[in-house]
Amino acid sequence: MSERSAWNARVTGVSSLPPVTLVIVPGLHGSEDAHWQTWLEREMPGARRVEQRDWDAPNLAIWSDAVLDVLAGIDGPVVLAAHSFGCLATAHALSHAGAFQAHAANVKGVLFVAPASPAKFRFAGAFSARRLDTLSLVVGSETDPWMPLDEARTLAQRWNSAFVNLGDAGHINTAAGFGPWPLAKHFVETLARRVSPDYEEEGQRAYG
Hints:
The chain is α/β, with parallel strands linked by helices and 208 residues long. It has a single domain (3-10, 20-200), classed as Alpha/Beta hydrolase fold, catalytic domain (Rossmann fold, 3-Layer(aba) Sandwich), CATH 3.40.50.1820. The protein contains 8 helices and 6 strands, in the order H-E-H-E-H-E-H-H-E-E-H-E-H-H. The protein has helices at 3-9, 36-43, 60-72, 85-95, 101-104, 149-159, 182-192, 199-207; strands spanning 21-25, 48-49, 78-83, 107-113, 135-140, 162-165. A 6-stranded parallel sheet has the order 2-1-3-4-5-6, with helices on both faces. GO terms for molecular function: hydrolase activity. It comes from Caballeronia calidae. Pfam families: Ser_hydrolase. This is Alpha/beta hydrolase.
């Protein structure tokens, strides 16, 4: 079974989508209007976006705090969709929630798309990949200039995330042709279904 097929098998037979809030976490320079994150935000009613004071100055501590600030303002289950350095900020936030732990616990799923290499962002703060306590998926690319595929797969393993290889997809951004991206919506909806009471039972059936 392929990595993508194994991921899709997790929700075999689950059709209902419970109410969740999608939180968009952009990377360096933010996500412009044509970016898939902006498209996805428009597609999901009630979606929220993490804003940074300076999109051109990545700082792991400051950016992760901004993620936690948004989570603190949301009641109910959350799914995060992060891109590039936003993936590192998201993982750092969930691993260092501190007083925000109760809000972090509302995160029921994380979509990490084209995570940036921590080595390339050492100047932004020390990053340590820790096992995450929520269902997550890393989507990597064989031609991503910001993260070799093997490193993306290793990061997924450390986070305890499922992994999907998109092949020749660049940095999975606007420049690589990723504007409207229905697959991203599918992944988010797959993660959202985890909050359904029927998820665990159906997931067990899917794995047989």
